[in-house]
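Sample log: Ester cyclase.
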Amino acid sequence: MVRETVGTEPPGGDVVGAFYDAYNAGNATAAAALYADDGWHEEAHNGARRAGRQALREGLERFFAFLPDARWERREQIAAGASVAVVYTLTGHLGIDLKGAPTKGRPITLDGIHVFEIADGAIVGTRDYWDPTAFGRQIATTPATGTGAREPGA
């Protein structure tokens, strides 16, 4: 159960709930369709950004191959105006080997925060804040200073 902390539902109804439903179903097309035509997603740790539904869908398809059983648990949601912040825990198992190391099947657990901007019932943009150092420790293919990976954020 998500703990609603502050504010009210942003304009557009429960687009945030639909976002996590699509993510947890591994449905890149449904997730990308929730964004405005020129919607964007940014990885806060490195500034990598995808814009437009096609780029978002393609990025998510790669992500779901990377972590095919990905599951986001919404722990807390804070809404203020047209912005929503969601504290989440992402779990799953790697679907590939990374950098030649046998990492396929390795479990991953990451805490993070998604920040949504919503207008006219669509997601205008999302920023994903997660710790690449924590990810690096879990895959253990690089020193604990991080992987430089653009994943796992979608």
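Observation: The chain has four helices and seven strands.
Observation: The first strand starts at residue 3 and ends at 6.
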